[in-house]
Structures are given as structure tokens and as C-alpha cells.
């Protein structure tokens, strides 16, 4: 048994802060959360004065194995699976070094995300718990076709969905619209699937108790995703040939349906703003703020793994992505909520992660300072636990403790 004590404990439940609090852990599980002394005795006590303990962060949209080396003509990559898997493991280590203890990987090739997920759970690799979607479902030559999930009609969509689920996918990802990073694919403002075809994905996932994340930039694709009943909409940027054009009525539909939206605000926002121009990026950010005002359930996710404006969207830049929410006018407490308990619920792991409660996984972080006052204090990591295992920027570590 181990007790972790700090100046304050944020449980993850909105507005709940325990001053001079402590968390009692038994192996991989939280036993209790309360004020100092409430846990009784333990064989190990970690004292962290001046620190804040809070749930481990949740990145709801990453690509640990994004491969930008695919030749659009030969349809082959210069990076073999062995090398890519090693790079994915390093990306996972960097992700957890930023305090992310759960991440949803929304697209990779050859089921390598499943291999990495299982290796992390077995203790063979260092990283967050992974919720893996495997191959995104897309049209032939569509956005991210090279990950292996091409399907053009309902029969093919069912086949790819079932193959992914049989392999062990935790959720399904479907490219409801085109994207910006696949040469020759439909652009972002063009839908790739009809509402009926998206319903097929939802049906296949639902039959196995799984959720669906829909990549949707275009207005029509966003509407179809809502009508089909997907769990989360990724990006939801209201993209048109002339840029971002927020649609208040469509946002109201998203809010009314309770669909989560991951706007994929990322840490290279300011660099992208310099390269692409202030108007485009400010329109995007104002749309995110407008969705919040409309009551849309927003969650944090970085789309880590891609390259934006010549700058890599690194897996260890999660806090920078949260600072973009602050730029859009979100308060620190709300930002922490959408990066913990709300994101965990959206990713389907809310019963075991996202908040500090008895019976949940011992996924937590401790930071020097108070992130409710200064969001940047989330960078001051003193402790990261993933199912009770202690990790830091260099891998596995042992926390200095005293007997209690």
C-alpha cells in the first residue's frame, strides 16, 4: 500500500479540490481519496508539499505510427513495420513523459497499435494505456488510404470494420470527409461517405460494444456523422473551399445529440498561425469557442504525429495544446476537466480512468505548483503513475519516499 500526499488533490470531478489531500493506492488500483490522515497507515508514503495531484491526462486523438513516407505512386512506405513499431514505442514514451496516461490512437497500419498497446499493458514498453482504432475506414485513395482500411460500399465497409474488430480494435475510426495530408485524396470540405454508410460503421461497432470516431471537416460530413450516431467527431472544423465557416445551427445539432467533439487543438498552433496566416487559424479557434458556448461537449486531443507547417506535432507537447484552449477563452478548471474525466468518458474508459476515485486505475500525475492558477504548471511533473507504475521522462523510475 502507498499513500501520495500533496498540497491539493484535484479529483477530476468538476470543482472538487481537496486541500492537503492524499491518495491511497494498492498496486494498480486507487483505494481511497481524501484529506490528510483519511487513508490510515501504509508501508510507503510519498510527501509532495507544494504540489498538486490530479488524474492522468487523456489525449483523445493521437497517431503514434503516422507514416508520412508513403509514395503516392508506388503506394509503398520506406519504413518497414519493425522500424515503425520502434518509433511508435518511442512516441508512446514521450507521450507519457508529458503526463498523458491514456491516449486514443485513431489510425495506424498493420495493427501495430494493437501490438504496442498489449506490450505496454504487459510492461514490455513504457507508455500510456492505449485505446486503439487500428486502420481507419476510408474510400479507395481517400484520406489515409495507405493505412489499409479502404472500403467503397456497405459490404466493404462491414468487412473492414469486422476485420478491425476481430483483430482487437477498441473502437473504429471512419474518414467521413477528406483530409489535408493525403495527396490525391478528396479535400477536407468533401464528404467521403453517406449517412447510410456511416451507420454501417456504427452498427458494426455497436454490435461489439465499441464506439466510433468520425473524422469530419465538411459541413455535410459533420451532419451525417451526427445522424449516423457516432460517439465522437474529430476536428469538426466546418471547412469549406474558402476556409472555416462556422455553422451555428449545425453546432446546435451536435450539442443536442450529445456527441463529443475533439477539435484537435495542437501545440504547433502558433507556428501554423505564422505560416498559414492569422485569419484562417483565428477562425478555427473562434469556432471552437462558439461550440463551447453552444453546449458542445469538447474534449482534448492533439492529433499528435502529423507535421503541420513543416513542424512536427510532437507527442510530448500535450500541455501546449491545452494552452490553445486557454487562448480561446477556456478557464483552467474547464481545460483540466476536458483533458481528464470528459476525455476518458468520450474514449469509453470513464469507468476506470479520468478521475481519482476508489476502484479506478491508479493513473495520476503530480506537478509542482497549482495548474488551476497557472496551466503551465502541468509541465512541472514530479510523478506520473500508470496503473500504479511510476514513470518519468527517462523511463521507469522509483519515487523517493519515506516510511509512514
How would you characterize the overall build of this protein?
This is Amidohydrolase family protein. InterPro entries: Amidohydro-rel, Metal-dep_hydrolase_composite, Metal_Hydrolase, Metallo-dep_Hydrolase. Keywords: Hydrolase. With 404 residues, the protein is of the alpha/beta class. The chain has two domains: 2-55 and 356-397, Urease, subunit C, domain 1, CATH 2.30.40.10; 57-347, Alpha-Beta Barrel (TIM Barrel). The chain contains eleven helices and 19 strands. It has helices at 81-97, 112-121, 154-167, 195-206, 219-228, 248-257, 269-276, 278-294, 318-327, 332-338, 341-346, and strands at 2-10, 17-26, 29-35, 44-55, 57-62, 100-105, 129-132, 171-175, 211-218, 232-240, 243-244, 260-262, 297-298, 307-308, 311-312, 364-368, 381-386, 389-392, 395-396. The protein has an eight-stranded mixed β-sheet with strand order 3-2-1-4-16-17-18-19, with helices on one face. Strand 9 (211-218), helix 5 and strand 10 form a beta-alpha-beta unit. The longest helix is centred in the first third of the chain and has 17 residues, at 81-97. It is globular, with a radius of gyration of 21 Å. Mean pLDDT is 92; it is low at 393-404.
Amino acid at each position: 500500500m502507498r499513500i501520495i500526499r500533496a498540497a491539493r488533490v484535484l479529483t477530476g470531478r468538476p470543482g472538487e479540490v481537496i486541500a492537503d489531500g492524499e491518495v491511497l493506492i494498492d498496486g494498480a488500483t486507487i483505494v481511497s481519496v481524501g484529506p490528510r490522515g483519511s487513508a490510515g497507515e501504509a508501508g510507503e508514503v510519498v510527501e509532495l508539499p507544494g504540489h498538486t495531484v490530479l488524474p492522468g491526462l487523456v489525449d483523445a486523438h493521437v497517431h503514434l505510427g503516422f507514416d508520412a513516407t508513403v509514395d503516392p505512386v508506388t503506394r509503398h512506405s520506406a519504413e518497414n513495420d519493425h522500424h515503425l513499431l520502434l518509433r511508435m514505442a518511442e512516441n508512446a514514451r514521450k507521450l507519457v513523459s508529458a503526463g498523458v496516461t491514456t491516449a486514443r490512437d485513431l489510425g495506424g497500419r498493420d495493427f501495430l497499435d494493437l501490438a504496442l498497446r498489449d506490450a505496454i499493458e504487459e510492461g514490455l514498453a513504457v507508455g500510456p494505456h492505449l485505446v486503439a482504432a487500428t486502420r481507419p475506414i476510408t474510400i479507395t485513395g481517400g484520406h489515409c488510404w495507405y493505412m489499409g482500411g479502404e472500403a467503397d460500399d456497405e459490404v466493404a465497409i462491414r468487412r473492414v470494420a469486422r476485420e478491425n474488430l476481430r483483430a482487437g480494435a477498441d473502437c473504429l475510426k471512419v474518414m467521413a470527409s477528406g483530409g489535408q495530408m493525403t495527396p490525391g485524396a478528396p479535400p477536407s470540405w468533401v464528404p467521403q461517405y453517406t449517412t447510410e454508410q456511416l451507420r454501417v460503421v456504427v452498427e458494426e461497432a455497436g454490435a461489439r460494444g465499441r464506439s466510433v470516431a468520425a473524422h469530419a471537416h465538411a459541413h455535410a460530413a459533420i451532419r451525417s456523422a451526427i445522424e449516423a450516431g457516432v460517439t465522437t467527431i474529430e476536428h469538426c472544423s466546418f471547412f469549406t473551399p474558402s476556409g472555416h465557416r462556422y455553422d451555428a445551427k449545425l453546432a446546435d445539432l451536435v450539442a443536442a445529440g450529445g456527441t463529443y467533439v475533439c477539435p484537435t487543438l495542437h501545440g504547433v498552433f502558433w507556428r501554423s498561425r505564422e505560416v498559414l496566416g492569422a485569419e484562417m487559424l483565428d477562425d478555427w479557434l473562434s469556432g471552437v469557442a462558439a461550440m463551447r458556448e453552444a453546449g458542445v461537449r469538447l474534449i482534448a486531443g492533439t492529433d499528435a504525429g502529423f507535421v503541420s507547417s513543416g513542424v512536427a506535432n510532437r507527442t510530448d507537447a500535450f500541455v501546449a495544446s491545452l494552452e490553445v484552449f486557454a487562448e480561446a477563452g477556456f478557464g483552467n478548471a474547464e481545460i483540466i476537466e476536458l483533458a481528464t474525466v470528459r476525455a476518458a468518458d468520450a474514449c469509453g474508459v470513464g469507468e476506470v480512468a479520468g478521475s481519482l476515485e476508489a476502484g479506478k486505475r491508479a493513473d495520476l500525475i503530480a506537478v509542482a505548483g497549482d495548474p488551476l492558477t497557472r496551466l503551465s504548471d502541468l509541465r512541472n511533473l514530479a510523478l506520473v503513475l500508470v496503473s500504479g507504475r511510476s514513470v518519468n521522462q527517462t523511463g521507469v523510475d522509483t519515487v523517493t519516499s519515506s516510511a509512514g
